[in-house]
Every structure is written in structure tokens, then in C-alpha cells.
Specification:
Layout (H helix, E strand, L loop, with lengths): L1 E5 H11 L3 E9 L10 E7 L23 E8 L2 E4 H5 L5 E7 H15 L6 H7 L2 E6 L10 H4 L10 E6 L2 E5 L6 H7 L2 E2 L32 H5 L5 H5 L6 E7 L6 E8 L20 H20 L9 H5 L6 H24 L1
């Protein structure tokens, strides 16, 4: 079912949803960008349509609502351990998240890692049960996007309703039947609505079907030892990165009471692969870039059947050294093709 609403009608829908749920959407933060006098688009809680940034891609993803930067897992005091949810007694709010097709595809990746990769993660699951999604249509591709190459430009499922702005009108396809009455009461008319999506992007990526072991030591990675600052911006902005580390905070000098927190971390940052005895794996930028790229477009697919990367392009846009993940994947594909060609020549000879 589809509906066409005025902006006032859409705000009435959001107002009704806001009585029971928090609404989380990309918002332009004036003057809060990386450089003086620049803006940034980040997710925040909103109350009306006018607060939501539809004409710009968010610089950071929605994922903090599902995987907080810092999340207390449990409290401890002497011999007692209390899960955080039980101690706080906090009310879990339902949250409705506005997200584009690539980010809704990213939710599938997060669910795969936290819910279906062995026993379900109870902390993620507790939050996930209260989060639902609204599809933001994409009338045109944004700079650095390559969702079409990754097959994430269309979201067939995972959302309750869609929103497309068309001048003074708002076009919505509604999948959640429980919302039909609300939309019907505030719509100017009902008609079939197809969420807008792009069929191609200016940035195109060729993902190799397989990667021979020889390419793990290929010189194509070497440039990133010099270029990569190992700042971790790319992985913080990425909607599918799921790495974390543990931190204990003590309330008493002797350390017998405190809390354990799960804190977002990154394979691209110094210290993440440190082990007891002073050992460290993947020390150089080349080794870290290789690990990240292969995990996103090869290793994850070998295990789950689809790529981890969703082509949102945030990593390309946020890198202070202008390292393009898309270009890196294309270089990998070229290297795979070159190896295959060499093999064919050798076999023919």
C-alpha cells in the first residue's frame, strides 16, 4: 500500500509515532565538521520531517543506536556480578531509524555477526528488539557511493515504510500493516508507491570472486604503509564494522567493585592486535588495509554468502589521507585478473 502526504501530514504521522518511539535520523550539524566553518551530517533524535537531512549522505552511520561507542555489560562488587540491564532498571525505548538502502543492508550484516554467528549476543539482541527502520529513498547517487556495485542499492525488506520527498509532497510505501490506518488518516491520497533507488553510481567497483593466497603478500598493499595514518576513521564511519575491546572501570582503589564496558575499537588502530608478551599482529598500514579489505569483500562472503561491504562510501569520504577503499578493491580485482592471466599463459606454454 502507498500513500501521498503533505509535509504537515507526514509530520502528523511522525508525531504519532513519536508518542511511543524515539525517531533517529541523519541531521545536519552546523559548524561541527572536521574543519572550521564546515558542517557534518550525523544521526540524532528528531521530531519533524524538516530536521532530517534528505539531500545529503550522513558522514556517520546509524550503528551507534545498535552498537554504542561504550556499553556497560555488567557491574561487579566482591563476588557478585549483575548484568547492566538488571541493575539500571532502565526503560528500553523503541526507536525508529531513518536509513538508506545501503544502511538497511548493513543491518543484515550486523544481525549476522551478533545474532547468527554462534549464540546470540544478549546485549545486542536486547537493543535490536526495540529498533525498526524507515527506508529513505535515493533519487540520485551521492559522491563516493558504490552501492549498485555491491547489490545494496535496493532494499526489499527490513523496513516498515519508505519516505521520498517530491516537492511539497511526501511519497510513502507502507509495509507494516499496523501503520495503514495512521497513514490513511493523514494522507492526501493513496496510490502505488515505489521507493526511489539508483541503478548505478559514478564510482564503480569490481569485486573479485576469489583471491589467491599469493596476493596476501602482493606489493599492491605496500603503499598503505606510507599513506595510512592508522587513525581508524574509516572503521568508525563504516556501518558494518563490529570490532570492540573491553575496559574495566573500578569504583574502589582495591578494584573490588566496578563495571566492565564494551568499547568500540578498530583493526586499523594501533594496539588492537596487541597480545600478552608484547606481540602485535598486523603492525603496518599495509597489513591492516589488507585485512580490512579482504574481510569486507572476500572472507565474510566465504563464510556467509554475501559481502560485508555495502558500498556506502563513507570510508572514502572521511579518510584524511584520501585513501579510496573503492580504488583499493579495484586494484585487488586487477591483481587477481593479472594472476589469472599469468596462469593461463603458463599453462598454454
Amino acid at each position: 500500500m502507498g500513500y501521498v502526504l503533505s509535509r504537515d501530514g507526514m509530520n502528523a504521522v511522525l508525531g504519532k509515532l513519536g508518542e511511543e518511539s524515539l525517531i533517529y535520523a541523519p541531521v545536519v550539524k552546523k559548524g561541527e565538521g572536521r574543519f572550521e566553518g564546515t558542517d557534518v551530517v550525523r544521526y540524532d533524535f528528531v521530531r519533524s520531517l524538516d530536521e532530517i537531512a534528505f539531500d545529503r549522505k550522513s558522514d556517520y552511520s546509524f550503528k551507534e543506536i545498535l552498537t554504542p561507542l561504550s556499553d556497560t555489560l555488567f557491574f561487579f562488587a566482591d563476588d557478585q556480578v549483575t548484568p547492566a540491564g538488571e541493575k539500571s532498571g532502565a526503560d528500553e525505548h523503541d526507536v525508529v531509524v531513518f536509513a538508506r538502502a545501503c544502511d538497511i543492508a548493513a543491518v543484515k550484516r550486523l544481525d549476522q555477526m551478533f545474532l547468527h554467528n554462534g549464540p546470540a549476543d544478549p546485549f545486542y539482541q536486547r537493543i535490536r528488539e526495540h529498533v525498526s527502520f524507515v527506508l529513505m529513498g535515493c533519487a540520485q547517487s551521492f559522491e563516493t557511493c558504490f552501492c549498485a556495485s555491491m547489490g545494496t542499492n535496493v532494499a526489499e525488506e527490513g523496513w516498515r515504510f519508505s519516505v521520498d520527498l517530491d516537492g511539497d509532497e511526501v511519497r510513502c510505501a507502507v509495509k507494516d500493516e499496523a501503520l495503514d490506518a495512521l497513514f490513511a488518516a493523514n494522507a492526501a491520497r493513496s496510490e502505488d508507491v515505489e521507493p526511489a533507488h539508483v541503478d548505478e553510481n559514478p564510482t564503480r567497483v569490481r569485486v573479485p570472486e576469489t583471491v589467491p593466497n599469493e596476493l596476501y603478500k602482493d606489493p599492491l598493499w605496500d603503499e598503505y604503509t606510507k599513506r595510512c595514518l592508522k587513525c581508524g576513521r574509516c572503521t568508525v564511519a563504516c556501518p558494518t564494522c563490529t570490532c570492540w575491546t573491553m575496559q574495566d572501570t573500578y569504583y574502589t582503589p582495591e578494584g573490588r567493585a566496578g563495571e566492565r564496558r564494551r568499547v568500540q575499537a578498530s583493526c586499523m588502530i594501533d594496539g588492537y592486535t596487541n597480545v600478552a608478551g608484547g606481540g602485535q599482529y598486523r603492525c603496518t598500514g599495509a597489513e591492516r588495509m589488507r585485512f580490512k579489505v579482504l574481510h569486507k569483500v572476500y572472507d565474510f562472503r566465504r563464510r556467509f554468502g554475501y559481502d560485508m561491504c555495502v558500498g556506502c562510501g563513507r570510508c572514502d569520504a572521511i579518510c584524511p589521507e584520501y585513501i579510496s577503499f573503492a580504488n583499493c578493491v579495484n586494484k585487488l580485482a586487477d591483481a587477481v585478473d593479472a594472476r589469472a592471466a599469468e596462469g593461463e599463459v603458463s599453462e598454454h606454454e
